[in-house]
C-alpha cells in the first residue's frame, strides 16, 4: 500500500490548484480560495460544491489508477478532468506530482518493491506525456532554448529522475515564466557561467535525499558571489526539503510547497531544455 502524507488544497470556486498544507500527514484533498477568486469576491454556489465533490472523486480515482498502473483509466480520468474545466497544468502539479511524492515516500519506507516503484514511475511518465500533450506546452523540456529564461530548474547532482522538474517547468511556464530545464545538472562554475549568460532571475534545485546537500552548498556559495545585478534568487525543494530533512542552506530559500514560489515571473513565455556546453 502506498504511504500518503500530503494535504492538497484546491480553490473551491474555480477548482484551481493552490498548494499543499502541512503537516503532510495524509494524502487528501481540501478546499480554500485562490487569490484571483478572493480579489473578485467570488461567492460559493451549489455548482461550486458540486465541482468540488467531483474534483475529489477525480483525484482519488487518478491515485487509484496510479496504484494499479492503469493508464487506460488515467486517460479517461484526464479527459474527465479537462471536461470539468481543470487546467492541464493543475492536473500535473496538483494530482500527478503528489502521486510521485507518495511513490517516493513508499519506496523510502520499504512499503513497495523495486519492481513496483519502477512500475509506478513508468505510469507517472506516461500520465505526464498524456496531460502535457493536451497543452501548448507539450514540448516543454525538449526544445532548444530561445531567448533568455526567467527560471532555471535543475536536479541536484546525483538526482537522476527528471519527471518532477519537468512537471514543475510546465506549471511555471503556464504562469508565463520562461522556464529552462538544465539537464544534465551543471556544477557551480557551469551554473555561474549560465547565469551570467542568461541573467535568469531564479534558480530552483530539486534534491531527493539529504545527502545531495553537499552538492548544493558549493553551487549556492558560487552564485552568491556573482554581482548583485545578475545574482539569481536560489530556491531548493524536493522530497528531502518537504519532509523537513534539511534544516537550512545558507544563501538559499527552502521551498516546501511550490505555491510559496514568487508570483513575479515576468519574462517572455516559453520553454526549453538547455544542454550544458
Broad CATH class of the largest domain: Mainly Alpha
The percentage of residues in β strands lies in 5-15%
Care to count the β-strands?
Answer: 9
- Count of helix runs: 9
Estimated structural class: alpha/beta
Radius of gyration: 18 Å
The succession of helices and strands, N to C, reads EEEHHHHHEHEHEHEHEE
Structure notes:
With 277 residues, the chain is an alpha/beta fold. The protein has 2 domains: 7-132, Methionine synthase domain (Methyltransferase, Methionine Synthase (B12-binding Domains), Chain A, domain 1); 151-274, Rossmann fold (3-Layer(aba) Sandwich). The chain contains 9 helices and 9 strands. The protein has helices at residues 35-39, 46-68, 71-83, 88-108, 114-132, 163-173, 188-198, 213-223, 239-242; strands at residues 7-11, 17-21, 28-32, 151-155, 179-182, 202-206, 233-237, 253-254, 273-274. A 6-stranded parallel sheet has the order 8-7-6-4-5-9. Strands 2-1-3 form a 3-stranded mixed sheet, with helices on one face. α8 (213-223) links the parallel β6 (202-206) and β7 (233-237). α4 (88-108) packs antiparallel against α6 (163-173). It is globular and about 55 Å long. Residues 137-146 and 267-277 have low confidence and may be disordered.
